[in-house]
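Write out the 3D structure for:
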Amino acid sequence: MVATVCLRLAFGLVAPLNLLDSKPIPPRFFRIQLLVSLGLLAVAGYFLSGSQPINLDIDGVWLFNGVGVKWFWIAFSASAVVCFLGCLVWHLDRAPGGTRIIRLASCCLAFVLFLITPFHCPESVDWWRLGDNFASAAMLGVATTAMMLGHSYLISPTMTIAPLLKLLIALAGVLALRVTLATWALYWWTSEHPLGNLETETLLWLIARWVLGILAPLALGWMAWETARIRSTQSATGILYVVVIVTFLGELTSLLLLEKTGYPL
């Protein structure tokens, strides 16, 4: 689970950078994002390196005659190298090729995230887990990136508010995607397991997941949008701190429910 969360967040921190114009934003912001992603890859690599390729599903890594393992580590290594190069490039004046590095890192990390989705046989993809991986990565990444961008306004208070507003719009879109996926999964799961027959523990986890991971980010995201519109960036950043906390709690609860039910509730 630790490796899965780290890989989701690594992709989520890099992918939203493609939405931003690098000109008004300090280069250190892009450098830090890539550096944090590199650190997350190191943590994920530590936990995954202890997994023995015995069966088809070890910590979410697709294993089929060793082919999945080989391609996973190739993509994983490529992602780490590209993120490291990105850190160096964004240290240079005008960051030559910096946006291309970000696009390449996003593609490599997306491939890694695809490969950690369990394939129970060559013809069978667990589509619920695949959608959950990318939706969760987007949710974690956009929320965290928006919060970290808010810190840039403390250092550069004259920076245009447009990048933060763009990320808040992206957060709203990701929330809509997450709600759609979770609602659809809940519909299919409850058609097999009516809510009245659920164990108390599962029902409590389900309530906590929806309150923390769906309802709270919706309300807090709207508050962050309203404060950002009046350029109260400190207040918006503080609200986004809370958004990140409840989003992490919601996504971790979702992972527990996924392991228990097989659906991304």
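The chain has two domains: 1-125, 152-265.
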